[in-house]
Amino acid sequence: MSAYQYFEIISMAVLVAILIFDLLIVVKRPHVPSMREATGWVVFYVSLALLFAGVLLVMGDAKHAGEFVTGWLLEYSLSIDNLFVFIIILAQFQVPRAMQQRVLMIGILIAIVLRGIFIVVGVQIIEQFSWVFYIFGGYLVYVAWQQAFNAEDDEEERKDNFVVRMLRKRINLTDTWDGGKTRTTIDGVRYFTPFLMVIIALGTTDLLFAIDSIPAIFSVTTDPFLVFACNIFALMGLRQLYFLLGGLLDRLVYLHFGIAAILGFIGIKLVFHAMEANELSFINGGESIEWVPHIETWHSLVVIVASMAIATIASLMKGRGEKGAESYTDEDAS
């Protein structure tokens, strides 16, 4: 085996071990993490991702290192959008604060498994049909438009996904929590608790997000190992990020524009890639379209960082301006 293959095996084993350790902590000691604890875990996972890229670089694989960093930042940026939906879901099911870590952790583990399946299928499709990049690209441009101009409506639609609505109609469900149990007995009747429903909601909702993010990551790399690694690193720190950011998310009013810009750029990049590798006979006679500009990995990295930075700074500036205006109004009234 090559050094890269050994690296794949070892890194996956380490990541699985960390996930198991993290899960055991959450299951055995359910609690509301402090800001210090949440910050520590976020820093740990970010450092781990950078170490992962650093090892690739030391191995002399600068190409894969660059692709990983870009892909990881892309998935991390898009995963922040997940947090808004997580807040809605946890509030909807009235998840007790002490149980939120466990619920999020299990939901994320389900999402990792489902994304893994999605990635394997996606890679196979891409290898067989390069024209699928036209579809991926067009879809991401559409999603970018929706994200920019229909964000509030989209958020409302995600409150209950199809799977949750279907289960609500077919099973006995109580709104009463019974610790971490998925089933409980009330007056002699067995009911499923919200614990089961919220996990299903988190896992399946994240899979819907994967329909956006997986095609996006394919614009950076089609290496299944790197695609999966980018997703794992993005998802692993999501639970701690939920507790760390908390109310700050409500202040990021322009975040959806930043995400829309990223998705739009990635969508265009995928279409350009499809045009470069064109095999469709009714487009340019099945030949590659040579005038299409080639977008490098570092171009994507710059767009991702710039979009998120501008959206965040603009949001915070707006919040500060509104707060200042309120203070001025209060002083004027007094």
Concise structural overview:
With 334 residues, the protein is an all-alpha fold.
Structural class given helices, strands, pairing?
mainly alpha
Provide a count of the helices.
Answer: 13
What is the H/E order?
HHHHHHHEEHHHHHH
Give the overall shape, derived from the CA principal axes.
Answer: globular
Low-pLDDT parts are: none
Order of the strands making up the biggest sheet: 1-2
Number of strands: 2
Assembly classification: single chain
Q: Any idea what the radius of gyration is?
A: 22 Å
How confident overall, as mean pLDDT?
82
Helix content: over 70%
Distance between the first and last residues' Cα: 76 Å
Largest sheet: 2 strands, antiparallel
How much strand content do the residues show?
Answer: under 5%
Protein name: Tellurite resistance protein TerC
InterPro entries: Integral_membrane_TerC, Integral_membrane_TerC_rswitch
Subcellular location: Membrane
GO cellular component, one term: membrane
Highlighted features:
two-stranded antiparallel sheet, 334 residues, single chain
Description:
A two-stranded antiparallel ribbon has the order 1-2. 75% of the residues lie in helices and 2% in strands. It has a domain at 3-128 and 144-245. The radius of gyration is 22 Å and the shape is globular. The chain is mainly alpha-helical and 334 residues long. The longest helix is centred in the C-terminal third of the chain and has 37 residues, at 297-333. Strand 1 (183-186) and strand 2 (189-192) form a beta hairpin. It has 13 helices and two strands; from the N terminus they run H-H-H-H-H-H-H-E-E-H-H-H-H-H-H. This is Tellurite resistance protein TerC. Keywords: Membrane, Transmembrane, Transmembrane helix. InterPro entries: Integral_membrane_TerC, Integral_membrane_TerC_rswitch. The chain crosses the membrane at residues 6-27, 39-60, 72-91, 103-125, 131-149, 191-218, 224-245, 252-272, 298-317. Its main location: membrane.
